[in-house]
Amino acid sequence: MSYLSLDSSAPSTSQSAIKQGPRIVKIAELDTSVVSLNLGDQIIMDASRAVLRKLFPDAFYVSLPTHEFLLWESYRVLKDCDYVFVGGSNLLKSSMMWNNQWKISPIDFLKRKSCILLGCGWWHYQATPDWYSKLMLKNILSKKHMHAVRDQYSLQQLHAANIHNVLNTACVTMWGLNKQHCATIPSQRAPRVVTTLTAYNSNLEADRATIELMLKEYEEVLLWPQQPDDLAYGLGLANGAVKVISPNLASYTELLRDNHVDYIGSRLHGGIRALQMGKRSLILAIDNRAMEITRDTNLPVVARGNISAIQQWITGSAPTQLNLPEQAIASWMNQFVADPNAATRVQYGS
């Protein structure tokens, strides 16, 4: 239990004293896990909240959705907040007028308080941002603060939108995967493996070959459905030969905590959660996210369908060695230390 440190003198109940007395910093978290059918968004928000509560342990927090358009009460709440943080995920696009995961509209151009990116990324490889996206992003992103993005490609796309107060910090879910943590991750194969699939971006041939390889190489294959459609897809590929983990983050985390397992799967944050829990992990890249992050950080990634590389990883003994952008992470966090409500300065690499 923690306590707020306040002046010990007896407080006055006058209206002037209430207005001028101790105040609580108010923080809005734009939450990618609300109105989301992807449990990976919960993994992202777990990490985002951990970072913010380390920075502002005594703040008052309120959550608002990114996957749904805001209404007037939300704008009122945002206006009263000291900071607005956007919690990761691939919310940024080159055409933010149509089919955008981050539900923003022209009303946001007029009403939304500026926000700060916390490990966000670009939605697939795309052209240079169009005029509307440039205008919207320049208006709703804070000009006073540095933004954290998850990879160099996302940084370059923001630069193309003439937004230069950006740092490549890797995904916020990776910030705790330092050298000391990675040294605890086994380098030899476990007897069992947990896998994830991506039904909305399926590849029957590659996914079936990967499942068959795991059934051959491991005593047991476990399937964690990160989205609802992954269950039927995975059971169909494996002809029912896999054991299913309940489709919630608590069950998956419990499995990783209490069992000696490897992870092999196409869900980026399913793999990162396994790394967080100290498990040997291989992420199968199906889009730009994992490929861009591994270029920057050496995250264990191979292309889906590269069966020989997957088998080599299973039978090999390579240690997990990530190259986190520690100085960029520290710079992003330390920009808030001037706020008297923020925690002490963060140091990496000591």
Q: What's the level 1 CATH class of the largest domain?
A: Alpha Beta
H/E series, N to C?
Answer: HEHEHEHEHEHEHEHEHEHEHEHEHH
The amount of helix comes to 25-40%
C-alpha geometry = globular
Which architecture of the largest domain would the CATH scheme give at its second level? 3-Layer(aba) Sandwich
Can I get a quick summary?
The chain is α/β, with parallel strands linked by helices and 350 residues long.
Describe the model.
By secondary structure, the chain is α/β, with parallel strands linked by helices. The protein has 14 helices and twelve strands. It has a six-stranded parallel beta sheet, with helices on both faces. A six-stranded parallel beta sheet has the order 9-8-7-10-11-12, sandwiched between helices. The longest helix is centred in the first third of the chain and has 16 residues, at 40-55. The chain starts with 14 loop residues before the first helix and ends in a 16-residue tail after the last helix. Mean pLDDT is 91; it is low at 7-14.
